[in-house]
Specification:
Blueprint (H helix, E strand, L loop, with lengths): L1 H30 L7 H13 L2 H25 L6 H39 L2 H7 L4 H40 L3 H11 L2 H27 L6 H34 L1
Helix pairs in contact: 2-6, 3-4, 3-6, 4-6, 4-7, 4-8, 4-9, 6-8, 8-9
């Protein structure tokens, strides 16, 4: 009976957290249109999140392109279908691998940073001081960060996709002596708007989820300094789970439109 009651308590806590997160998201949409716009802080957050994540995204994308091509090439060689390599790699990376891997990398890099930063500000009472001084901390700290992640993640995904395809090209150039022009011509011939548009749209939702959960965990941080680490850790875990759910919904909706 004790184990059953524990399960009930965990389930209640989960539902309560979902409700609080939904309220937090509703407050964001309410505050986003209010003045002042805090545009300078928004640009600063875009620079911090985008520029400082470029190297990590580039290295990850490059390795993905190399490994994916090296693993797939022997199988395609058995069927005499090596010429399909650029098409297969580009469609796989653009549709699924690039967006979800980049989003997970940014969840660890950006989401944990937001959770730790806002959590430390909450614990040291900096947010309370902003409220007393008449500043709107939610607008300045939360809205700007969520908007920055929402708009920067698609750019990071595009950058990571390009680097991944370039890594794939290097393998093909070494193994099969394929020219750069030929490889990228085959890549763009294989891609359609039906591949690009759904993949681009869901990256905005990925970025929104990363910013929302990171800000939610940090802004509502409790339990003193120990809560800062907990906020950063739970932001990554919760965001990663949420990204997979969003990705499943996006793929499901895309398949419905393709079937029509």
């Amino acid at each position: 009976m004790d184990s059953f009651s524990k399960i009930i308590e965990i389930f209640k806590g989960f539902l309560l957290e979902i409700g609080e997160l939904s309220y937090f998201a509703g407050r964001f949409f309410k505050e986003v249109f209010k003045r002042p716009s805090e545009f300078k802080e928004f640009l600063r957050q875009c620079f911090n999140m985008g520029n400082r994540s470029l190297l990590l995204v580039a290295v990850t994308g490059f390795i993905i392109g190399l490994v994916f091509t090296l693993q797939s090439r022997p199988t395609l060689q058995e069927f005499g279908a090596v010429s399909w390599m650029p098409s297969m790699v580009s469609i796989s990376i653009i549709r699924e691998i690039g967006p979800i891997i980049t989003a997970l990398i940014c969840a660890g890099r950006i989401g944990s940073g937001i959770g730790a930063e806002l959590g430390s500000m909450r614990v040291t009472e900096q947010i309370d001081a902003m409220e007393v001084s008449g500043t709107n901390p939610f607008k300045y700290l939360v809205v700007t960060r969520i908007l920055a992640t929402t708009f920067m993640l698609p750019l990071l995904v595009f950058f990571g996709d390009f680097i991944a395809i370039f890594g794939s090209y290097l393998v093909e150039n070494i193994k099969g002596n394929v020219s750069f022009l030929l490889y990228y011509n085959q890549v763009f011939d294989a891609l359609e708007f039906g591949d690009l548009i759904p993949a681009t749209i869901k990256t905005f939702f990925f970025g929104f989820a990363i910013g929302l959960v990171g800000c939610f965990k940090g802004y509502n941080c409790k339990k003193g300094t120990a809560g800062v680490g907990l906020a950063a850790n739970s932001a990554v875990v919760f965001t990663s789970m949420l990204l997979f759910i969003i990705d499943f919904i996006a793929v499901f909706i895309t398949n419905i439109f393709y079937d029509l």
